[in-house]
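hiii, so i know i said id send this last week but things got crazy w the move. better late than never?? heres the sequnce for the chain we talked about at the cafe, plus the structure i predicted for it. fair warning i was half asleep when i ran it
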Amino acid sequence: MNLALHIILETPPANVVFGLQRGSGNDYQTVQVQTGNSGDLIFDFTVETKGDKGKDELPDFKGPFVQGPRLGRFIYLDIGSYAKQTESPVGGRMKIPLTGVTWETISKLNEITGLQTRVPGTGKNGGPNYATVKSFLGWSVKTI
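okay and structure toks below
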């Protein structure tokens, strides 16, 4: 089953490029590239749900946007130079966990719904928010 995901990156710093990472290691592309302006940035994509509800406690995910080990999967947003913003003074990644998604949550979805999360785009120092999102609020059902 394909699962639609919707990430809202809340008010990231202006003039910094952000993008969704497709692939891993040195063999990746940054897609849906957007520049922070004064509003939120939106990233929409799909991942594949895998596993057996009868055997696996939690679903697993795969696809070109999925990173990390089973039960520790996540999505990367590339920032600045990592998002191919040449001559950027900043560079790194934001890690958005795919935790908290249960079989029960997936059973509530249909062809017009998906999961949504909101993450802060700006860190305490006023620059981009890097690494694993702190105080991650999780994923909720959203009509796509």
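btw DSSP finds one helix and ten strands in the chain. thought thatd interest u
miss u guys!!
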